[in-house]
Amino acid sequence: MLPRRRSMQEKPEPFASPEVNLSVDLFIEIESCQKNKHGQDICGDSFMTHKLVEEDRVISVLSDGLGHGLKANILSTMTATMALKFTASDVDLISSSETIMNALPVCRVRNISYATYTIVDIRNQTDISIVEMDNPPFLLIRNGEAITVPFKEVESPSLEGRKMKTYSLKACPEDRLVIMSDGISQSGIGTEQLKLGWRVEGCKRFVLEQVCRDPQISARSLAGKILAEALTKEVGGKAYDDMTVAVFYFRKPRRLLVLTGPPFHQNRDAHFANIFETFKGRKVICGGTTANIVARELQREVVDHLETTDGDIPPIATFEGADLVTEGLLTLTKVAQFLEKGETTPRRNAASMLLERLLESDSIIFLVGTKINEAHQDPTHPMDLEIRRNLIKRIAKILERKYLKDTYVRYI
Fold it and tell me: Which of 239, 376, 406, 407 could hold 396 in an S-S bridge, CB 3.0 to 4.6 Å?
Protein backbone atom coordinates (compact mmCIF):
# COMPACT_ATOMS: atom_id res chain seq x y z
CA MET A 1 0.00 0.00 0.00
CA LEU A 2 1.65 3.15 -1.03
CA PRO A 3 0.05 6.57 -0.74
CA ARG A 4 2.04 9.68 -1.64
CA ARG A 5 3.73 10.59 1.62
CA ARG A 6 6.76 10.27 3.83
CA SER A 7 7.12 7.46 6.37
CA MET A 8 5.55 7.48 9.84
CA GLN A 9 5.44 11.08 10.99
CA GLU A 10 5.55 12.50 14.47
CA LYS A 11 4.87 16.12 15.32
CA PRO A 12 5.17 17.53 18.80
CA GLU A 13 3.33 20.60 19.98
CA PRO A 14 2.12 22.90 18.54
CA PHE A 15 -0.45 20.52 17.11
CA ALA A 16 -1.13 20.63 13.38
CA SER A 17 -4.55 19.53 12.16
CA PRO A 18 -4.69 15.97 10.79
CA GLU A 19 -5.92 17.49 7.53
CA VAL A 20 -2.37 18.71 6.86
CA ASN A 21 -0.21 16.54 4.55
CA LEU A 22 -3.02 14.11 3.82
CA SER A 23 -3.79 15.01 0.22
CA VAL A 24 -3.47 11.39 -0.92
CA ASP A 25 -4.90 10.64 -4.37
CA LEU A 26 -4.82 6.87 -4.28
CA PHE A 27 -4.09 4.11 -1.81
CA ILE A 28 -3.02 0.57 -2.65
CA GLU A 29 -4.31 -2.08 -0.29
CA ILE A 30 -2.26 -5.28 -0.64
CA GLU A 31 -3.33 -8.48 1.08
CA SER A 32 -2.47 -12.14 0.57
CA CYS A 33 -3.82 -15.47 1.82
CA GLN A 34 -2.05 -18.83 1.86
CA LYS A 35 -2.78 -22.47 2.55
CA ASN A 36 -0.15 -25.18 2.91
CA LYS A 37 -0.49 -28.40 0.95
CA HIS A 38 -2.40 -30.84 3.17
CA GLY A 39 -0.02 -32.63 5.52
CA GLN A 40 2.77 -30.04 5.20
CA ASP A 41 3.82 -27.78 8.08
CA ILE A 42 5.17 -25.00 5.89
CA CYS A 43 4.02 -23.38 2.65
CA GLY A 44 6.09 -23.85 -0.49
CA ASP A 45 4.91 -20.48 -1.84
CA SER A 46 6.29 -17.12 -0.72
CA PHE A 47 4.75 -13.66 -1.03
CA MET A 48 6.83 -10.61 -0.14
CA THR A 49 6.26 -6.87 -0.45
CA HIS A 50 8.74 -4.03 -0.06
CA LYS A 51 8.01 -0.29 -0.02
CA LEU A 52 10.55 2.24 -1.23
CA VAL A 53 9.00 5.33 0.32
CA GLU A 54 11.54 7.76 -1.09
CA GLU A 55 10.79 6.49 -4.62
CA ASP A 56 7.01 6.35 -4.14
CA ARG A 57 7.23 2.72 -5.15
CA VAL A 58 6.07 -0.69 -3.93
CA ILE A 59 7.31 -4.05 -5.20
CA SER A 60 5.62 -7.40 -4.56
CA VAL A 61 6.76 -10.90 -5.53
CA LEU A 62 4.82 -14.17 -5.45
CA SER A 63 7.03 -17.22 -5.92
CA ASP A 64 6.12 -20.91 -6.08
CA GLY A 65 8.97 -23.32 -5.26
CA LEU A 66 9.38 -26.74 -6.80
CA GLY A 67 7.67 -29.45 -4.75
CA HIS A 68 6.27 -28.91 -1.27
CA GLY A 69 7.29 -28.31 2.31
CA LEU A 70 10.62 -26.96 3.49
CA LYS A 71 12.49 -27.56 0.23
CA ALA A 72 9.91 -25.65 -1.79
CA ASN A 73 9.79 -22.90 0.83
CA ILE A 74 13.57 -22.41 0.58
CA LEU A 75 13.35 -22.16 -3.22
CA SER A 76 10.45 -19.70 -3.19
CA THR A 77 11.90 -17.57 -0.38
CA MET A 78 15.28 -17.26 -2.14
CA THR A 79 13.55 -16.44 -5.43
CA ALA A 80 11.24 -13.81 -3.92
CA THR A 81 14.08 -12.19 -1.95
CA MET A 82 16.38 -11.93 -4.97
CA ALA A 83 13.58 -10.76 -7.25
CA LEU A 84 12.73 -7.97 -4.81
CA LYS A 85 16.33 -6.79 -4.62
CA PHE A 86 17.00 -6.99 -8.36
CA THR A 87 13.77 -5.21 -9.21
CA ALA A 88 14.43 -2.44 -6.68
CA SER A 89 17.89 -1.98 -8.22
CA ASP A 90 16.46 -1.94 -11.78
CA VAL A 91 18.72 -4.81 -12.87
CA ASP A 92 18.22 -6.07 -16.43
CA LEU A 93 15.37 -8.61 -16.55
CA ILE A 94 17.22 -11.43 -18.30
CA SER A 95 20.35 -11.02 -16.18
CA SER A 96 18.37 -11.05 -12.95
CA SER A 97 16.31 -14.11 -13.96
CA GLU A 98 19.45 -16.03 -14.91
CA THR A 99 21.11 -15.09 -11.62
CA ILE A 100 18.04 -16.20 -9.66
CA MET A 101 17.78 -19.57 -11.39
CA ASN A 102 21.52 -20.27 -11.17
CA ALA A 103 21.57 -19.44 -7.45
CA LEU A 104 18.79 -21.86 -6.50
CA PRO A 105 19.73 -25.20 -4.90
CA VAL A 106 19.27 -28.20 -7.20
CA CYS A 107 16.58 -30.79 -6.44
CA ARG A 108 18.25 -34.18 -5.89
CA VAL A 109 15.25 -36.08 -7.27
CA ARG A 110 14.57 -34.04 -10.41
CA ASN A 111 18.14 -32.66 -10.75
CA ILE A 112 16.82 -29.16 -11.52
CA SER A 113 16.51 -25.90 -9.66
CA TYR A 114 13.10 -24.41 -10.21
CA ALA A 115 10.76 -21.72 -8.95
CA THR A 116 8.10 -19.70 -10.70
CA TYR A 117 7.36 -16.08 -9.86
CA THR A 118 5.27 -13.00 -10.51
CA ILE A 119 6.72 -9.54 -9.90
CA VAL A 120 4.45 -6.50 -9.50
CA ASP A 121 6.33 -3.18 -9.52
CA ILE A 122 4.15 -0.11 -8.82
CA ARG A 123 5.46 3.45 -9.12
CA ASN A 124 3.63 6.67 -8.28
CA GLN A 125 0.57 4.64 -7.25
CA THR A 126 -0.55 3.99 -10.84
CA ASP A 127 2.36 2.97 -13.11
CA ILE A 128 2.55 -0.82 -12.99
CA SER A 129 5.09 -3.22 -14.48
CA ILE A 130 4.45 -6.96 -14.15
CA VAL A 131 6.74 -9.89 -14.92
CA GLU A 132 5.40 -13.47 -14.99
CA MET A 133 7.69 -16.48 -15.03
CA ASP A 134 5.49 -19.58 -15.42
CA ASN A 135 2.92 -18.47 -12.81
CA PRO A 136 -0.79 -18.27 -13.78
CA PRO A 137 -1.69 -15.00 -15.53
CA PHE A 138 -2.89 -12.16 -13.31
CA LEU A 139 -6.41 -10.76 -13.33
CA LEU A 140 -7.18 -7.06 -13.76
CA ILE A 141 -10.72 -6.14 -12.71
CA ARG A 142 -11.97 -2.72 -13.79
CA ASN A 143 -15.53 -1.37 -13.83
CA GLY A 144 -16.92 -4.84 -13.16
CA GLU A 145 -15.06 -6.46 -16.05
CA ALA A 146 -11.86 -8.45 -16.51
CA ILE A 147 -9.46 -6.49 -18.70
CA THR A 148 -7.02 -8.19 -21.08
CA VAL A 149 -3.59 -6.57 -20.98
CA PRO A 150 -1.14 -7.05 -23.91
CA PHE A 151 2.26 -8.51 -23.08
CA LYS A 152 5.71 -9.06 -24.51
CA GLU A 153 7.67 -12.29 -24.27
CA VAL A 154 11.27 -12.29 -23.11
CA GLU A 155 13.37 -15.45 -23.38
CA SER A 156 16.72 -16.26 -21.82
CA PRO A 157 18.89 -18.54 -23.98
CA SER A 158 20.51 -20.07 -20.90
CA LEU A 159 17.25 -21.06 -19.17
CA GLU A 160 16.23 -23.87 -21.53
CA GLY A 161 13.49 -21.97 -23.31
CA ARG A 162 11.75 -20.61 -20.23
CA LYS A 163 9.90 -17.48 -21.25
CA MET A 164 8.82 -14.47 -19.24
CA LYS A 165 5.84 -12.29 -19.97
CA THR A 166 6.14 -8.58 -19.27
CA TYR A 167 3.25 -6.14 -18.95
CA SER A 168 2.94 -2.38 -18.55
CA LEU A 169 -0.32 -0.77 -17.47
CA LYS A 170 -1.75 2.20 -15.65
CA ALA A 171 -4.07 1.67 -12.69
CA CYS A 172 -7.35 3.50 -12.25
CA PRO A 173 -9.30 4.12 -9.03
CA GLU A 174 -11.21 0.99 -7.92
CA ASP A 175 -9.03 -1.36 -9.99
CA ARG A 176 -8.21 -4.75 -8.50
CA LEU A 177 -5.20 -6.82 -9.47
CA VAL A 178 -5.19 -10.52 -8.52
CA ILE A 179 -2.11 -12.76 -8.71
CA MET A 180 -2.00 -16.42 -7.69
CA SER A 181 0.06 -19.59 -7.58
CA ASP A 182 -1.09 -22.63 -9.55
CA GLY A 183 -2.45 -24.18 -6.36
CA ILE A 184 -5.37 -21.77 -6.79
CA SER A 185 -5.89 -22.12 -10.54
CA GLN A 186 -5.49 -25.92 -10.45
CA SER A 187 -7.63 -26.53 -7.38
CA GLY A 188 -9.99 -29.44 -7.85
CA ILE A 189 -7.95 -30.86 -10.75
CA GLY A 190 -8.83 -34.46 -11.56
CA THR A 191 -12.14 -34.41 -9.72
CA GLU A 192 -15.44 -35.43 -11.34
CA GLN A 193 -16.63 -31.81 -11.58
CA LEU A 194 -13.31 -30.16 -12.50
CA LYS A 195 -11.12 -32.55 -14.45
CA LEU A 196 -8.86 -29.68 -15.56
CA GLY A 197 -9.13 -27.76 -12.30
CA TRP A 198 -10.79 -24.45 -11.39
CA ARG A 199 -8.47 -22.67 -13.82
CA VAL A 200 -7.88 -18.92 -14.06
CA GLU A 201 -11.18 -18.57 -15.91
CA GLY A 202 -13.13 -20.04 -13.00
CA CYS A 203 -11.31 -17.80 -10.54
CA LYS A 204 -12.06 -14.80 -12.77
CA ARG A 205 -15.80 -15.53 -12.78
CA PHE A 206 -15.77 -15.87 -9.00
CA VAL A 207 -13.88 -12.58 -8.50
CA LEU A 208 -16.30 -10.75 -10.80
CA GLU A 209 -19.25 -12.12 -8.82
CA GLN A 210 -17.73 -10.94 -5.53
CA VAL A 211 -16.97 -7.45 -6.83
CA CYS A 212 -20.44 -7.17 -8.35
CA ARG A 213 -21.99 -8.22 -5.04
CA ASP A 214 -19.82 -5.80 -3.01
CA PRO A 215 -18.15 -3.10 -5.16
CA GLN A 216 -16.13 -1.91 -2.15
CA ILE A 217 -14.92 -5.33 -1.01
CA SER A 218 -11.46 -4.98 0.53
CA ALA A 219 -8.36 -6.74 -0.77
CA ARG A 220 -8.19 -8.59 2.54
CA SER A 221 -11.72 -9.91 2.25
CA LEU A 222 -11.47 -10.75 -1.45
CA ALA A 223 -8.22 -12.69 -1.02
CA GLY A 224 -9.78 -14.68 1.81
CA LYS A 225 -12.86 -15.49 -0.26
CA ILE A 226 -10.79 -16.63 -3.26
CA LEU A 227 -8.75 -18.99 -1.11
CA ALA A 228 -11.85 -20.33 0.64
CA GLU A 229 -13.57 -20.94 -2.71
CA ALA A 230 -10.51 -22.71 -4.11
CA LEU A 231 -10.52 -25.05 -1.11
CA THR A 232 -14.14 -25.98 -1.76
CA LYS A 233 -13.02 -27.45 -5.10
CA GLU A 234 -10.61 -29.86 -3.41
CA VAL A 235 -11.62 -33.31 -2.20
CA GLY A 236 -12.57 -32.99 1.46
CA GLY A 237 -11.54 -29.34 1.39
CA LYS A 238 -7.88 -30.40 1.72
CA ALA A 239 -5.34 -28.49 -0.36
CA TYR A 240 -3.73 -30.73 -2.98
CA ASP A 241 -1.02 -28.11 -3.55
CA ASP A 242 0.30 -25.01 -1.81
CA MET A 243 -2.13 -22.16 -2.42
CA THR A 244 -1.40 -18.43 -2.47
CA VAL A 245 -3.47 -15.51 -3.73
CA ALA A 246 -2.69 -11.80 -3.44
CA VAL A 247 -5.01 -8.89 -4.20
CA PHE A 248 -4.07 -5.28 -4.95
CA TYR A 249 -6.92 -2.78 -4.53
CA PHE A 250 -6.42 0.78 -5.81
CA ARG A 251 -8.80 3.11 -4.00
CA LYS A 252 -9.26 6.34 -2.12
CA PRO A 253 -7.79 5.86 1.38
CA ARG A 254 -10.03 4.74 4.21
CA ARG A 255 -9.10 7.07 7.04
CA LEU A 256 -9.23 6.42 10.77
CA LEU A 257 -8.60 8.80 13.69
CA VAL A 258 -7.55 7.25 17.02
CA LEU A 259 -7.74 9.56 20.05
CA THR A 260 -6.02 8.42 23.19
CA GLY A 261 -4.93 10.23 26.34
CA PRO A 262 -5.86 13.68 27.67
CA PRO A 263 -4.06 16.76 26.27
CA PHE A 264 -1.07 17.99 28.26
CA HIS A 265 -2.81 21.31 28.98
CA GLN A 266 -6.46 21.33 29.97
CA ASN A 267 -7.03 24.49 27.90
CA ARG A 268 -6.51 22.32 24.79
CA ASP A 269 -9.50 20.08 25.60
CA ALA A 270 -11.91 22.05 23.42
CA HIS A 271 -9.50 21.94 20.47
CA PHE A 272 -9.03 18.21 21.08
CA ALA A 273 -12.80 17.63 20.92
CA ASN A 274 -13.15 19.83 17.84
CA ILE A 275 -10.60 17.74 15.94
CA PHE A 276 -12.67 14.66 16.78
CA GLU A 277 -15.92 16.33 15.71
CA THR A 278 -14.68 17.68 12.36
CA PHE A 279 -12.56 14.69 11.26
CA LYS A 280 -13.75 13.12 7.99
CA GLY A 281 -13.45 9.38 8.41
CA ARG A 282 -13.94 6.72 11.06
CA LYS A 283 -13.20 7.69 14.66
CA VAL A 284 -12.07 5.64 17.66
CA ILE A 285 -11.46 6.77 21.24
CA CYS A 286 -9.16 4.69 23.45
CA GLY A 287 -9.34 5.59 27.13
CA GLY A 288 -12.08 6.44 29.60
CA THR A 289 -10.58 9.81 30.51
CA THR A 290 -10.19 10.68 26.82
CA ALA A 291 -13.81 9.77 26.10
CA ASN A 292 -15.06 11.78 29.07
CA ILE A 293 -13.14 14.87 27.93
CA VAL A 294 -14.62 14.72 24.43
CA ALA A 295 -18.10 13.99 25.84
CA ARG A 296 -17.90 16.94 28.22
CA GLU A 297 -16.75 19.35 25.52
CA LEU A 298 -19.38 18.20 23.02
CA GLN A 299 -22.09 17.79 25.69
CA ARG A 300 -22.67 14.11 24.95
CA GLU A 301 -22.94 10.97 27.01
CA VAL A 302 -20.67 7.95 27.18
CA VAL A 303 -22.60 4.72 27.76
CA ASP A 304 -20.69 1.67 29.03
CA HIS A 305 -21.58 -1.85 27.86
CA LEU A 306 -20.39 -4.11 30.64
CA GLU A 307 -21.58 -7.24 28.86
CA THR A 308 -18.65 -6.83 26.42
CA THR A 309 -16.08 -7.42 29.18
CA ASP A 310 -13.84 -10.35 28.20
CA GLY A 311 -11.29 -11.60 30.70
CA ASP A 312 -8.65 -8.91 31.13
CA ILE A 313 -10.09 -6.80 28.29
CA PRO A 314 -12.36 -4.03 29.65
CA PRO A 315 -15.73 -3.40 27.98
CA ILE A 316 -16.47 -1.04 25.12
CA ALA A 317 -18.70 2.03 25.34
CA THR A 318 -20.88 3.90 22.87
CA PHE A 319 -20.61 7.57 22.13
CA GLU A 320 -22.37 9.70 19.50
CA GLY A 321 -20.02 10.26 16.58
CA ALA A 322 -17.52 7.56 17.55
CA ASP A 323 -17.27 4.24 15.71
CA LEU A 324 -15.71 2.62 18.77
CA VAL A 325 -14.86 3.60 22.36
CA THR A 326 -12.53 1.36 24.39
CA GLU A 327 -10.42 1.44 27.53
CA GLY A 328 -6.91 2.75 26.90
CA LEU A 329 -3.63 1.01 27.67
CA LEU A 330 -4.79 -2.54 28.41
CA THR A 331 -6.71 -2.71 25.15
CA LEU A 332 -3.97 -1.02 23.10
CA THR A 333 -1.34 -3.35 24.55
CA LYS A 334 -3.41 -6.40 23.54
CA VAL A 335 -3.86 -4.99 20.03
CA ALA A 336 -0.10 -4.43 19.73
CA GLN A 337 0.48 -8.08 20.63
CA PHE A 338 -2.04 -9.25 18.02
CA LEU A 339 -0.40 -7.10 15.33
CA GLU A 340 3.14 -8.25 16.12
CA LYS A 341 2.16 -11.92 16.07
CA GLY A 342 0.00 -11.54 12.98
CA GLU A 343 -2.94 -12.99 14.89
CA THR A 344 -6.66 -12.38 14.88
CA THR A 345 -9.19 -13.71 17.33
CA PRO A 346 -12.79 -14.90 16.84
CA ARG A 347 -13.66 -13.48 20.27
CA ARG A 348 -15.73 -10.33 20.15
CA ASN A 349 -14.20 -7.87 22.57
CA ALA A 350 -12.74 -4.35 22.62
CA ALA A 351 -9.30 -5.48 21.42
CA SER A 352 -10.62 -7.53 18.48
CA MET A 353 -12.94 -4.68 17.45
CA LEU A 354 -10.10 -2.15 17.51
CA LEU A 355 -7.82 -4.54 15.62
CA GLU A 356 -10.49 -5.00 12.96
CA ARG A 357 -10.86 -1.24 12.46
CA LEU A 358 -7.12 -0.73 12.19
CA LEU A 359 -6.73 -3.48 9.59
CA GLU A 360 -9.70 -2.20 7.59
CA SER A 361 -8.23 1.32 7.42
CA ASP A 362 -5.50 2.67 5.15
CA SER A 363 -4.50 6.05 6.57
CA ILE A 364 -4.45 6.02 10.38
CA ILE A 365 -3.89 9.15 12.48
CA PHE A 366 -3.06 8.75 16.16
CA LEU A 367 -3.78 11.88 18.19
CA VAL A 368 -1.99 11.28 21.47
CA GLY A 369 -2.56 13.31 24.61
CA THR A 370 0.67 13.66 26.59
CA LYS A 371 -0.67 14.22 30.09
CA ILE A 372 0.65 11.50 32.43
CA ASN A 373 -1.98 9.29 34.02
CA GLU A 374 -0.55 8.36 37.42
CA ALA A 375 -2.58 5.12 37.50
CA HIS A 376 -0.40 3.74 34.70
CA GLN A 377 2.81 4.18 36.67
CA ASP A 378 1.78 1.41 39.12
CA PRO A 379 4.70 -1.08 39.18
CA THR A 380 2.27 -3.96 39.75
CA HIS A 381 0.82 -3.49 36.24
CA PRO A 382 2.08 -5.94 33.54
CA MET A 383 5.54 -5.09 32.21
CA ASP A 384 4.13 -4.85 28.69
CA LEU A 385 1.85 -2.05 29.82
CA GLU A 386 3.98 0.71 28.33
CA ILE A 387 3.36 4.38 28.68
CA ARG A 388 0.99 5.64 26.03
CA ARG A 389 3.51 7.45 23.84
CA ASN A 390 5.77 4.42 23.33
CA LEU A 391 2.83 2.07 22.89
CA ILE A 392 1.33 4.15 20.08
CA LYS A 393 4.72 4.43 18.37
CA ARG A 394 5.00 0.64 18.61
CA ILE A 395 1.56 0.10 17.04
CA ALA A 396 2.17 2.67 14.29
CA LYS A 397 5.52 1.13 13.42
CA ILE A 398 4.16 -2.40 13.07
CA LEU A 399 1.16 -1.15 11.05
CA GLU A 400 3.53 0.50 8.58
CA ARG A 401 6.17 -2.20 8.31
CA LYS A 402 4.10 -5.36 8.48
CA TYR A 403 0.67 -4.27 7.28
CA LEU A 404 1.75 -1.48 4.90
CA LYS A 405 -0.56 1.08 6.48
CA ASP A 406 -0.02 4.81 6.26
CA THR A 407 0.35 6.12 9.82
CA TYR A 408 0.67 9.56 11.36
CA VAL A 409 1.39 10.20 15.04
CA ARG A 410 0.52 13.60 16.50
CA TYR A 411 0.95 14.75 20.09
CA ILE A 412 -1.13 17.32 21.95
Answer: 407
